[in-house]
Amino acid sequence: MAAPLDSAFEALYAYWFGLLTCLHLGKPYAVLAANFPHLPTEARLQIYSLCLHLRLWSRPHYRSGTFANDMRKNLRNVALPGTGLPLSLLCRHYFVAVAFLWVGVPLAALAAALLRVRESQRAVSLSRAFAEALLASGDGGRAWFHYWRLNCALASYHALETADDGYALEDKLTFLQACEREGVAVSPWLRTPRLVVKHRNEEGGLGLHVFDNADAGGDWIVQAWLDNAEGVARLLPARAPLSTLRLITASRASARPPEHACTASDVLLLSACFRAGRDGALTDHSCIMYDVDVPAGVCKKGTSNSHWYQLGLSKARHCAWMSPGHTIGAHPDSGRAVAGEPVPDMAGCVKLVLEAHRKLMPRVPLVGWDVAITREHGTLLLEANLSCNFFRATFDVDAYGTFVEELLGFLEPAR
Fold first, then answer.
1. Cα–Cα distance for residue pair 36/13, rounded to 1 Å
2. Distance between CA 166 and CA 395 in Å, rounded?
């Protein structure tokens, strides 16, 4: 049984040992696990996932050319709280990223540990706080960034090693077409080859925009605006955007050769989160993230990670360094209670994503589904995210860790 992390020296030794053996010597996860069997699984995976980021650096990525390019794109609006500097800066050059792993990550963990000790009024020792911050252990909500990045590395690694065609569904048009082909409820889109949008008061060709539909070889997917169903809208402020559920599913078939069929029991739900959009926002990327009790079909308390998206020194000075956790009961923009309220058609949402994962991409390890409950068309899928973010929903960390270890064992047997 894994022992709790309470030794800063042991954590730092394990971390640096992992960088040396798994990054620079290219050893598999099994070596790290064999040398540190007493560490929590999520701690070992934190070390190994950072090594994977650098090992995959210049390798092909299923959507962005290389893994490094994908990091630069996805981290350009994310900053360590209080710094204001986009993390994409660390992804510009390989040796800068290596230096940051060796020195910057431990220093950031030390800063986080000092803050935690101060806020807990020394109820937690500095040694234990540092060990848990360095190895992202003990709290799946606080370590949301680690789990997101781990999921991204797993997707790229699995796609590289298996060349599974399910990764093609990251393309939004391919996804829509696959859903239609398999009879999976998905947001409708217009088939008009070319769309013209004019400003009502501009003349002389000004204020005119032409969009070539992706379905006819263009770049744009043209869709009608969708509204929240009444059961969702009543939880939100009047000008909230379409607010979705983020459901994460995992497929055990991803850790087996393709000749083995994927059955319904192979696909399981890991987490559920309701993203309650903010008043006046265009999308629910600006939201309060309410955890969801899936069996009961009700929202639990919410939280935010907006302090990770404060770019620029002026914003960094005023943002929180740490999140208080899931403490938000009512929507801050409307005062309406969300925690304790039912999620419409929760059972239908779960059934939809489990079937979609099995039918559309059974050998992709993890999928983050954006599920909308709409006034116009009922419950349907908007997108599938294969490098998925839990959005701070709670999940069974031990079960997730076991799943990831099995996946790595499948990908790395020869090593």
1. 10
2. 24
Alpha-carbon distance of 127 to 10, in angstroms, equals: 10
- Sequential DSSP letters for 339-373: TTPBPTTHHHHHHHHHHHHHHH-TT-SEEEEEEEE
Distance CA 291, CA 403 (A): 22
Alpha-carbon gap, residue 131 to 112, rounded angstroms: 11
Q: Where are the alpha helices (DSSP H) in 163-258?
A: 172-182, 230-233
For strands 65-66 and 60-61, give the pairing: antiparallel
- Cβ-in-10-Å burial (0-12, 13-18, 19+) of 218 comes to middle
pLDDT digits 0-9 by tens, 317-364 = 888 877 778 999 999 999 999 999 999 999 999 999 999 999 999 999
Average pLDDT, the chain: 93
In whole angstroms, what is the distance from residue 284 CA to residue 300 CA? Answer: 18
C-alpha radius of gyration, the chain, whole number = 22
What pLDDT does 209 receive?
93
- The two structure tokens encoding residue 119: 């806020």
Q: How far apart are CA 157 and CA 125, in angstroms?
A: 37
Contact 297, 346 (CB under 8 A): yes
CB atoms within 10 A of CB 63: 16
Q: Tokens 């706080």 label which residue?
A: 129
281: tokens are: 């926002």
pTM listed for this prediction: 0.94
CA–CA dist 292, 340 (Å, integer) = 9
- Give the number of C-alpha atoms closer than 13 A to the C-alpha of residue 35, restricted to the C-beta side: 21
pLDDT for residue 173: 96
Eight-state DSSP code of residue 31:
H
Check: CB of residue 230 under 8 Å from CB of residue 210. no
The pLDDT of residue 1: 41
pLDDT for 319: 83
CB atoms within 10 A of CB 64: 17
Q: Give the C-alpha separation, 138 to 46, whole Å.
A: 12
As a residue count, the chain comes to: 415
pLDDT of residue 407: 97
Judge whether residue 121 has pLDDT over 60: yes
- Cα-based angle 380, 267, 276 (whole degrees, multiple of 5): 40
